[in-house]
Amino acid sequence: MSIQKTSLHEEHLALNAKMAPFAGFDMPLQYTSVKEEVMVVRNAAGVFDVSHMGEFFVEGDDAVSFVDFIMTNDFKNAEMLKAVYSPLCRDNGTVIDDMICYKLGEKRVLICVNASNIQKDWEWINTKVGQFKVKLTNKSDDYSLLAIQGPEAEAIIKKAGILGNQDFPYYSILETDFQGEHLIIARTGYTGEDGFEVFSSHAFAKKFWKELLATGVKPCGLASRDVLRLEVCYPLYGHELNDEVTPLDAGLGWTVKMDKAEFIGKSALAEYKPKYQLVRLSLEKGIPREGYAVLDSNNNIIGKVTSGTMSVVTGKGIAMALVEKEKNPKDKKYLINIRNQNYEATFHQKAFITGGHK
């Protein structure tokens, strides 16, 4: 299978971006340095090409009810033009993917899924239509997606003219026509900072990308995006989330609304006793990496790192890890094994940093 390219592929090459395969796409890892790209998003604004993500549209009389049924979170009671984050689960409660669903109207919903799971998600969701009066359309190949992230993102978007001056709260979405182009704009992102995601045609994305860079917005790659999301402890499918765990294992119990009438996996999750617990750990010395063993103070292996990196903001090694719930130490003392040496890790009740989203 040949590797896919986003509409901005030539732009990345022109900027001498370091490219690498990701979810079947040739994607930019970084343009300058990871540190520089992280700091520009934390302090100003950066733009990411995330056109590899998948876009499904659900339309029809039962659009909202159907999306509410396939997610564990509450979509039915979300306000119009709002976004809802949720796992997508199997009947046994295990996670297929995580997604953001956007309530565009009473009869129209946009679902944004991870690039690596587009086909898997599409096939699963289609098997669940049943008696729901909906039409599903996979528009993943038709949309480009730019994520403008950082404290200056709102000013940049308004200056570009695509937003106007209306009130636009965090986790909201709108559809608008701009310069003959139909745009879907969401105040979402996965960096922990304020930001906007612009769903558009490929032609508009190429034009808008150049305009953003011309105004001083810095291009950022997937490497900095991973550090940014890990600093604020956002889970990532294939790491904290996978086909073997449930939302209750992975720190996403808040997304499972058991008071809903029905949703896929409800009966399984109602009886499920979590096997794992997601913990946040930092190191004064050493960089934790995915797969490294996590131990208790008696050197017993109790779990493994699911995501690890050097935090640009804190200057420490940071990690999220899944540990076996029955072995999780009450004293919250942990070790991480790096190249056959154990390093003391500090337990964090909350995220390593607080992002600046609205």
Q: Which labels suit this protein?
A:
358 residues, alpha+beta, Gyrase A, domain 2, Alpha-Beta Plaits, Elongation Factor Tu (Ef-tu), domain 3, six-stranded mixed sheet, six-stranded antiparallel barrel, 19 strands
Map the helices and strands.
Elements: H1 9-14, E1 18-22, E2 25-30, H2 34-43, E3 46-49, E4 54-59, H3 63-70, E5 83-89, E6 95-105, E7 108-113, H4 118-127, E8 135-138, E9 144-149, H5 153-160, E10 173-178, E11 181-186, E12 195-200, H6 202-214, E13 218-220, H7 222-231, H8 266-271, E14 276-283, E15 293-296, E16 301-310, E17 317-324, E18 334-338, E19 341-348
Parallel strand pairs: 3-13
Antiparallel strand pairs: 1-2, 3-9, 4-7, 4-8, 5-6, 6-7, 9-12, 10-11, 11-12, 14-17, 14-19, 15-16, 15-18, 16-17, 18-19
Helix pairs in contact: 2-7
Domain count: the total is 3
Oligomer: single chain
Strand order in the sheet with the most strands: 10-11-12-9-3-13
Level-2 CATH architecture of the largest domain: 2-Layer Sandwich
Give the low-confidence spans. none
The helix fraction, in percent, is 10-25%
User: What is the number of strand segments?
Assistant: 19
